[in-house]
């Protein structure tokens, strides 16, 4: 139900918020990409999917009019095992099992639960990469791309006085060289750590879908209505308007490392072409997301969207802190 601009906004605000989710993430690029994964092979967002995967599989949901992804089940199957394998949990007992519920207990930044990664996390900010001279520069593949940084980089080329000092016939070779230069094999520990961030992002996507869909279901019940084609059209139109109202800057950046991590996604491998297409679509989603004011909602309203959007991120932060309070 939420479109990619909404999912990207959730991920961006969590990364920049400095809360329990941000403290858990070292590879922001993998985390942001993970927030889009459940929709890749469904076939609606990414073109060229040869064999679409059913929504009930990608989203851990029962087939119904307004499906509720079982985020907790995904957490237990993929996030928790990787956290343990990466040494990110001190002791997370069976009493913290999610049982396939809506949410999932996660990590705390204190003495118990999640062991923070602040010391080696690539920065996430307006530049979208590590600052020059920063020791984290060599780890900049972990940072998402930034629209603001991209605009600052390309805008001078569109001024009347811009001059270039290279042969335009070599442009493609320059692009290939830049990609190849950043290529290096990840160590097993690096791969597993980035994979944890990716599945954590996927969990946030499922948690968001479940929270939004449950809120819509509750609204239908309160109004005594039944799901219908007219309801679906108005509802999705309202979601599109709300998504356009959000300020966006971050987007997943296509890197050799992201391709390598996506290929190791534990639920199913994600091929390189689909990773590239997903990054391109996310880029256009962010680039063309010009916020609108005074949206004329037909079914929902501003209070609904503000409340549920805040609830999704608060829930993600709360679930990540849960283990530390047991």
Automatic annotation (TrEMBL):
Domain of life: Bacteria
UniProt protein name: Phospholipase C/D domain-containing protein
Species in which this protein is naturally found: Collinsella intestinalis
């Amino acid at each position: 139900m939420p479109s990619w601009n909404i999912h990207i906004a959730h991920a961006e605000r969590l990364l920049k918020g400095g809360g329990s989710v941000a403290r858990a993430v070292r590879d922001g690029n993998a985390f942001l990409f993970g927030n889009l994964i459940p929709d890749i092979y469904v076939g609606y967002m990414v073109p060229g999917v040869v064999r679409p995967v059913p929504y009930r599989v990608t989203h851990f949901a029962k087939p119904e009019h307004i499906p509720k992804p079982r985020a907790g089940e995904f957490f237990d199957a993929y996030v928790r095992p990787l956290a343990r394998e990466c040494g990110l949990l001190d002791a997370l007992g069976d009493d913290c099992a999610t049982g396939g519920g809506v949410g999932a207990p996660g990590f705390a930044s204190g003495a118990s639960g999640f062991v923070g990664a602040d010391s080696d996390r690539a920065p996430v900010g307006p530049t979208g990469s590590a600052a020059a001279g920063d020791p984290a520069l060599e780890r900049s593949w972990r940072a998402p791309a930034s629209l603001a940084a991209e605009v600052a980089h390309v805008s001078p080329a569109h001024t009347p006085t811009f001059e270039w000092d290279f042969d335009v016939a070599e442009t493609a070779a320059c692009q290939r060289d830049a990609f190849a230069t950043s290529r290096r094999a990840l160590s097993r520990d690096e791969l597993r750590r980035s994979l944890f961030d990716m599945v954590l992002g996927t969990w946030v996507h499922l948690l968001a879908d479940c929270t939004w869909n449950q809120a819509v279901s509750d609204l239908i019940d309160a109004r005594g209505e039944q799901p219908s084609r007219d309801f679906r059209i108005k509802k999705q139109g309202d979601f599109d308007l709300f998504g356009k109202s959000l300020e966006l800057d971050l987007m997943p950046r296509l890197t050799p490392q992201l391709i390598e991590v996506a290929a190791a996604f534990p639920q199913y491998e994600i091929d390189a072409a689909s990773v590239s297409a997903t990054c391109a679509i996310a880029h256009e989603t962010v680039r063309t997301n010009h916020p609108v004011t005074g949206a004329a909602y037909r079914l929902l309203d501003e209070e609904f969207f503000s409340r549920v959007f805040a609830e999704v991120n608060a829930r993600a932060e709360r679930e990540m802190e849960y283990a530390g309070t047991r």
